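Our consortium's second objective concerns turning raw sequence data into structural hypotheses that experimental partners can test. To show how far this objective has progressed, the report includes one record in full. It was chosen at random from the queue rather than selected for favorable results. The single chain below, 102 residues long, was entered without modification.
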Amino acid sequence: MEHVNEMNWYHLPLTTGQVAAGEVQQRKEAFSEAFAAARAPRSMAFFQQGREDGGVDLFLTPECGEHAAELLAEWGCVPCERPSMIGLYLLVGHNEITYYMP
């Protein structure tokens, strides 16, 4: 398995069709299970950011690579830089996550 930079966030874009089909909720539920299984680490979180085209960008914190690697691979998430906090909405995680964000 290749080594992934610990500081990378993970990104998954969803189209308007995927959003309409309820994929955000499905992925939120799947992530919630992984989050609970990992015993809710303080810096593990799942975010959503809307796009002008009606789709959404889903972002997962770097710690997800340690606790939810299978989910990231299954979803086809790609490493990315930390997203802008503007319009970023926490789907799963601790409310104080912004204090711990790398």
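The partners drew two points from this record. Residues 23-37 form the longest helix (15 residues). Confidence is low (pLDDT under 50) at residues 1-5. Both points have been shared with the crystallography group to help prioritize constructs.
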